[in-house]
Structure of Acyl--CoA ligase:
Amino acid sequence: MKKGGIKFLLGKEKKYKMNNCKRQTGYASVDKPWLQFYAKDIVKKTIPKMSAYDYVMDNSTSYKNECAINYFDRKITYKQMQDNIEEVIRAFTKIGVNEGMAVAFLVPTLPESIYSFYALNKIHAISCWIDPRCGVERIARSIKEAKAHTIVIIDLLLPKLKEIEKFVRIKNVIVLSAAESLPLGTKILFNLKRKNIEEDLNEKCILWKQFIKNGCNYKEKAYTGDYITAIEYTSGTSSTPKGVVILNDAINALAYQYKLSGVEHHPGDIALNVMPLFLMYGLACGVHMPFSLGMTNVVIPNVSPDNFPRYVKKYRPQHFMVNPILFDSLVNSDEMKDVDFSGVISPAVGGSAISSKKEEEYNLFLKKHNNGHKLAKGYGATEAGSAFAAVISNESDQKGSVGIPLPLNIVSVFSYSLDEENEIVRSVNELRYNEEGEICITGPTLMKEYLNNSELTNKVLIKHKDGKIWLHTGDRGYINERGNIFVYDRIGRMIITPDSHNIYLASIEEVINSHIAVDECAVVGIKVDGYEKGKLPKAVIKLKEEYINKRDTVIRELIELNNRKLPERDVARYYEILEEFPMTLGGKIDYKKLEKTTKGEFVDANIIISELI
């Protein structure tokens, strides 16, 4: 790509004055065109200056006796949640956890996980959330990086504990069971089926119930300014997972922006929480945002495409936030045939990209089920405090976009180039509407830094000419004059062919995904024997069930479609059909693994390979 970006023409720029906007300069950071979809003077609002714990409790003063958590039909009120948090604070204080210290968590989302986050937040300690499905060495490395001498571990993971301790010193091990808050009858049945964990305990282990009983008094910690409250890890889709240091005010800013956004919400609304706390989206949007708005959070620690439709049918949530895999399970489920969705306010999808075809399919599903809202698409990053853009109303949506910036954020697009190693060379040169470049954000939800990695932090958090710190996401896209953001792919997903021709893989994906037989497609660049440099694009495809036996016909049609829709050198050169895609632990397509699988079937595509060299 040439420095300065590529003009992506969608028509002439409109010149008009918009609500909350002083002028139309053609630069998103100045015009903030998305503010036309928000209430007037919304930018004058300031985020609350208090602990995340106090923000939830202060907001819930008028509905203390309303249900905060529904855990397998055990209902816990806001007052009971507050009392439970106080117990957890006393317990952590007893074992010596205090301000600035980190506690590592290897647990799913449970009521006790939630109490722990707010307990540590109140005393200005740090919760470090680690995906318990990770390998032993990665878990140990994360604990060591956070300098956490206390861990909270789900009992099912205890067999891993001895291996973890080979790599890192741990002082306290608090053992938590998913049964702690279950209703009595369900708990009895659960415990009858549960494996005996006694043989996996050691002298450092203390069961949760005993941990809570051993609490002591603590000294209240007043809010005197922003502080670190959590460490989350990136998904690892583009590189090794990185620890992201999250500030208290950023957590509050995310919740507060949803309150300001105009999305309909009411105390008592049901939010179906299926995202784990070890994903930033789960912590910020799955837990803190619903509590800040007075919702009932239905907590389900183990959600899958098989059981998600059943939970939606049972709890009839007004709000749910899922990845495309789970939304697909709704679309394809027989259980959903007669379910009325008229009460669903925000059917949100995020976590990974969806094609325009998928978007149409999801919106058609909502319409057929009596829902008047369009799909609440979103876009975010762990480094940006989770979601920083969303569809907040039907009016704010445009097909193919991921929505508009949340009201206190500023999003724009900046030019970049690639060096000889295909690494991004970033700039502070802002592009105009509809010009492609790197999507960047500045606002109150940004991370403080990458944990123990100032060099990498300085590569993505960059001070611009306006004096603001901007997060450079590494995503390629553009923003239009309405404020809608369009994201194509990771900049790193561009490949250079053997003749130094640039190919954006998402462009091929969009064409292939438009075919009626294709359920999902991922295009990767692969090395080809005989060429010292460059890669060629390979399309990995999952077919819809009714087309599985028509594989050869579908591939022939896809070749023809590629040749018709794309420049001849930009077509996929290899094809492979898979029954299922390999996925990362964060539930996204594992592109790295796809690159390493077999090459698939080579396609001539009317080009002789030697002509590319």
Remarks:
- The first helix runs from residue 28 to 31.
- The chain has 17 helices and 30 strands.
